[in-house]
Amino acid sequence: MTSDTAVTTRKRRFDAKVLQNLAIRYAMVIVLLLVIAFFMYRSARFGTVDNVVTILVAAAPFALIALGQTLVILTGGIDLSVGSVIALSSMTAALTAKSVPGNLILPVLVAIVVGLAAGSINGFVVSVIKVPPFIATLGMLTLASGLAFVVGNGAPINGLAADFGAIANTQIFGLTIPVLLMIVGIVGFGIAMRRTAWGMRVYAVGGNPIAARIAGVKTGRVLFSVYAISGALAGLSGVMLASRVITGSPTLGQGYELDAIAAVVIGGASLLGGRGTVWGTALGLLLIQTLNNGLDILTVPAYWQDVIKGILIVAAVAVDVWAAKRRV
Description:
About 75% of the residues lie in helices and about 0% in strands. By secondary structure, it is an all-alpha fold. Strand 1 and strand 2 form a beta hairpin.
């Protein structure tokens, strides 16, 4: 083999490896584009501006809890309570709105405080008492779910004034408030995780908590902060969902924690902590909501939608594990 041939062969191998690495790195982007192309081909309705807005509106409440879940998972934990916290905060917000009609700020503040309190309890139990996150948040899931029924005496809170719907349905610059909150949240947390000392500490705690502690990172405070933020975002999501339907429901948010975890995992975060991005979570969330919307348009039964999402989650984790092995 001549020297020129050897160089050419090495160059081809190098180019193939670069392309392969790029394909692995941007696998979810490629999948999302393929999914969009497929649905646009199958339905002219899918690619309309109105449908894009519908996808964004549906994604907004999930985005808030997915952002909180991202922070928690980056530390190597998990928050199973966000769905029940959504229910509890929606009920307390609805009760507040019914007690103080015409005041739109107070229900929002109450919902955030309720969510923050639940998240702070999770953070305290995990960071101070050292209860495993799975157990701690599972307990909060049950507690918050029960309290949601207590607030409404076992029934939804109806009969709210129509102006309560303005919290979620008011448009600014052509976008509803939840969509704007989603955009601000993604950009804000995306910058915070990459450009602030706190963000670096979150990654450090998830990557190697012992090394982080030796380096002077107060791991307990970091853990407390991410669970508190996750709870507050769940509270905000709860009042937005309640405002959208102008009612408080003790079952609102049921199962939402699973979709939030799915978005984080599909976005490339490791459940072991220390690896993942807010941008990846946003991509995973968009992929899930695009699938939901497109499959609804094609009238695919809900149970088949769950099958497809399950396959997607397993595939995302498999690709992540395979890529991690290649980096070793």
